[in-house]
Design a protein that fits this description.
It is built from five helices and ten strands; from the N terminus they run ααββββαββαβαβββ. The strands form three sheets. Strands 4-7-5-6 form a four-stranded antiparallel β-sheet, with helices on one face. It has three domains: 132 residues, no CATH class; 66 residues; 67 residues, no CATH class. With 268 residues, the protein is an alpha+beta fold.
Length: 268
């Protein structure tokens, strides 16, 4: 529905995969950024439900799905962040590959405005009209007066309607996070697609299944003071998505000891 094949098609074609988008497939029923439909479960739950439905629609045994989540940055106060997810599933060979991409500087923002002048201030900071906007009454954010707005005329009409119908006489504006309305998000999906494609051409040396790569990161990096396990990542586990073959790799940044601030014993 949101044109993600534009970001993924070329990369997957380079490894011999042609993407086929199911026709008249309503992916919005699994959740919308604007809040009309709440996403059920986690990001991976929604992605897998969407993937299962799409594969059933096409009758294909192999599928690829994209899902995103955006909100407050997990570390930096007052900043935004986003996570993109891709899942590749091969039902015939019974394996699944999951890849993530963290965006620390997304085109994600929102604001309330009581008049058009304040609304324009929001538009000035979100790269409008390249990034589209959604407008709703501040008292009913799940009922947008306009989505995918990229013309000032449409924004003005939606802002007036939202203010007139809001019990507080204010509108709520937010960046449209659908991929085809948000160039920054589309580029993030493109980068994640390259990461997934690179992984799919890596086969397990034991069983030959595609998708050898990072499975998880284990915590417990030794504390510099007491030597006990800290909350930081100690090593990465790389392995096969189909068999039990795995190897442990040290942290990619070369760090071998943790600052005591991250130690439950030294900094309880």
């Amino acid at each position: 529905m949101h044109g993600k094949e534009q970001a993924l098609g070329e990369t997957f074609a380079s490894i011999g995969v042609t993407l086929c988008v199911p026709k008249a497939f309503d992916s919005d029923r699994f959740g919308t950024f604007s809040g009309e439909i709440e996403r059920q479960g986690s990001m991976q739950d929604a992605a897998r439900a969407k993937l299962t439905a799409a594969m059933a629609t096409t009758g294909m045994s192999v599928g690829l799905v994209s899902e995103g989540a955006y909100g407050a940055h997990p570390v930096i106060p007052f900043a935004a962040a986003g996570t993109e997810l891709l899942i590749w599933r091969d039902d015939e060979n019974n394996y699944e590959v999951v890849e993530h991409w963290f965006d620390a500087n997304p085109a994600y923002d929102h604001a309330q405005a009581k008049n058009l002048q304040e609304a324009r201030q929001f538009l000035d900071r979100i790269s409008f009209p390249d990034t589209a906007v959604i407008v709703a009454p501040a008292s009913n954010r799940e009922a947008p007066c306009g989505k995918g707005l990229r013309s000032m005329r449409d924004v003005e009409h939606a802002v007036k309607t939202a203010i007139d119908t809001c019990i507080h006489s204010m509108c709520f504006l937010q960046t449209d996070m659908r991929a085809h309305m948000n160039p920054r998000r589309m580029e993030t999906i493109r980068q994640l697609g390259k990461k997934m494609a690179d992984r799919l051409v890596c086969r397990c040396h034991a069983c030959g299944t595609p998708g050898w790569g990072l499975l998880r990161k284990d915590t417990g990096l030794p504390c510099k003071w007491c030597g006990g396990p800290s909350l930081l990542v100690s090593h990465e586990v790389h392995g096969c998505v189909a068999c039990d073959e795995t190897i442990m790799k040290p942290r990619s940044d070369g760090q071998t000891q943790a600052d005591p601030a991250h130690c439950p014993m030294c900094n309880p």
